[in-house]
Amino acid sequence: MSLRPLIERVARAERQLEAREQRTRAHVQQAKATWHAGWTPWRIVVAGLAAGFAVGHARPLRLVDGGDLLKLAGLLPGLLARRDAQPPNADDADTTTSTSSTDDNA
Fold first, then answer.
1. CB 92 within 8 A of CB 86
2. CA–CA separation, 74 vs 94, rounded Å?
3. Percentage helix, strand, coil, to 5, in the chain?
4. Would you kindly state where each structural domain of the chain is located, as residue ranges?
5. Would you give per-residue pLDDT tens digits along the chain (106 residues)?
6. What are the CB-based long-range contacts (under 8 Å, 24+) for 91-95?
7. What pTM value is reported for the model?
């Protein structure tokens, strides 16, 4: 197979790809414009009311009524403070001194 037909085939494929990219960009711009034009102030208000109703109907705060979530939230600061206040393990200190002594011998 000659090189010229392959080059022409690649060039044709590139032209087709560029044409498809331009069509896709035009479609995306049209979709964006339609989307933005469709959001009138009244539609935004209705969507907000519907979303608020859906969230309120789901009762997301029912976990707090039991008190378990509040107890857990009260325990977290104490646990985090203990974790930060603990001294390093003795094993960690031994490994750092043993590695430094091997480095001195080398």
1. no
2. 37
3. 90, 0, 10
4. 1-38, 40-83
5. 689 999 999 999 999 999 999 999 999 999 999 988 888 888 889 999 998 888 777 766 665 565 666 677 777 777 777 766 666 665 555 555 555 555 555 4
6. none
7. 0.41
